[in-house]
Amino acid sequence: MPIERDARLREVQIWGDFFRFGIDAPAAGRDARPGQFVMVKVSEGTSPLLRRPLGIHDANPGGLDLFFKVAGKGTEILSRKKPGDRLDLIGPLGKGFTVAAAGRGRTAFLVGGGRGIAPLYYLALELAKAGTRPVVFYGGRSLADIPLRERFERAGLEYHCSTDDGSFGFAGFVTALVARELEKAEPALIYACGPDPMMKALAGIAASRRVPAEFSLESMMGCGIGACWGCVHRIRGESGTGWVKICEEGPVFPGERISWT
Amino acid sequence: MDVRGTGVDLTADLGFLELRNPVLTASGTFGYGLEFEPYMDLVTLGGIVVKGLYYGPREGNPPPRLVETPSGLINAIGLQGIGVEAFAEKVLPKLRRIDTAVIVNVCGADDDEYAAVVEFLDRQEGIAAYELNISCPNVKKEGACPALLPQTTFDLVKRIKAASRRPIITKLSPNVTSIIEIAQAAEEAGTDALALINTLLAMAVDLETRRPKLGNVYGGLSGPAVKPVALRMVHQVASRVRVPVIGMGGIMSGADALEFLVAGAAAVEIGTASFVDPDAAARIVGEIARWCEAHGVAAVRDVVGTIKIP
């Protein structure tokens, strides 16, 4: 987990509020696993002060891709960066999805809501490499909130879309779409990343069907390296339930360990 | 960050402890130290002040625990921690192998717990001093902390000083009417040094939901926003006590650190900056050395207390 002070923004793709950054960052890209994240410095000044945690969207030995939505001042400043600009990032950080858990020849469901789709693209590619068949479920409020459709299409990945307002694909929450598909065939594993209400609902669905699931939790983070204890979630462990650091033990946790509130 | 090439004497003298350089890490911002090993050689630091320890493990506050404010950060972690036994068993043996001063920040829900923590840690090797966190809410006094009054500060410092075989650094809260009176009470009770400032009590409000942004409602403000307040308090205290003062509050650079030394601090602690750049404390050591070299300062301790008040 090096500090890449001289990473370079190579390419930018924009869909409204959503951005994909292709970044030259060899040290971070080489070691990145699906579900891990990086802490990106957005300002050279002191406001905003803290780095922003962003999920790794894709990685290769030359660097990595980030996919994010402008959600506040930090991501807004980041979104104004241009190809050629220097980026300062720390990573890869945290513990990602267990790619090998689904198993060769088995199917895995990957469920992403809104910007939570970010890490699932890389996960889908790595699952396919490992011989698991990834089926992606991609939900958003509206058509404008699911911009990565073409990217999944071009990668030859099986994907199903849903929109809350019915403007594209399945009309309704992505969890309802997943529940419908589970009636037809059960996957070996469900991987998910998205808003807490989506993941909580999905956890209920997965548990009722006894399908194991892994969830990537999101939180504001002070440091991303386990030092500030700011990004905690209620997690079950060997010695009971307590506040566990998402950055260090997560961001991905098995469903049975997460206490949803 | 190689500082040897500069030829500047960086050592800092706290009287009871000589530090390799005047840069320590602030409690609560540097974990238990080991978290930072991937990012820097901990030996480059003057020392490490580890996260505050109560006797037993502690839950901490419900999230959200952090909120960013202009040039600052409000935290309400609630002193979540592993307790002294896990610290002695899992952390201290690893810290002992690193040739840097380890200072343990000591917490307590009442005076008895502070004493119990110190008595336990006194039996462990590899600790240079204790930093007494007198800002812990006291369960027997409706959450009031000892730091609020000269008398409660005096009583706690006197008791812990008598109980401890190691030097005591008393860490002061800025949320008081007169930090000078509190500092003098701690000195009178026998503290070996003073450290200041802890965070400033603060709040952030979400206008749309009209809810506090922190789970705990209130939290402690740190970062560059508090530096001017911290400098003022360090100067006030350092000019009125004889014990060494360790200054902190929003230090992001070597220049910031040197301003605290000029104001009277014998050493500094780096806090929030370590969240932004995990290697910030090591970088600051290098920046101090280069500033001294560029300004013909042979020993950094010669800078301490050189503020010119017209």
Detailed description of the structure:
The complex is a heterodimer of chains A (261) and B (310). In chain A, helix 5 (174-184) packs parallel to helix 6 (196-208). Chain A has 2 domains: 3-93, Translation factors (Elongation Factor Tu (Ef-tu), domain 3), CATH 2.40.30.10; 99-216, Nucleotide-binding domain of ferredoxin-NADP reductase (FNR) module (Rossmann fold), CATH 3.40.50. Chain A has helices at residues 26-31, 73-79, 118-129, 149-154, 174-184, 196-208, 246-249; strands at 3-15, 18-24, 37-40, 52-60, 63-69, 86-93, 107-113, 133-140, 158-163, 170-171, 189-193, 213-216, 232-237, 240-245, 252-254. Chain A is an alpha/beta fold and 261 residues long. Helix content of chain A is 23%, strand content 36%. Chain A is globular. Chain A has 7 helices and 15 strands. The model of chain B has no long low-confidence stretch (mean pLDDT 96). In chain B, helix 2 packs parallel to helix 3. Classes of the chains: A alpha/beta (261), B alpha/beta (310). Chain A binds chain B through residues 1-3, 41, 46-51, 90, 219-223, 225-233, 242-243, and chain B through 28-31, 35-36, 38-39, 51, 59-60, 62-68, 70-73, 75, 77, 80, 223-224, 252, 272, 274-279.
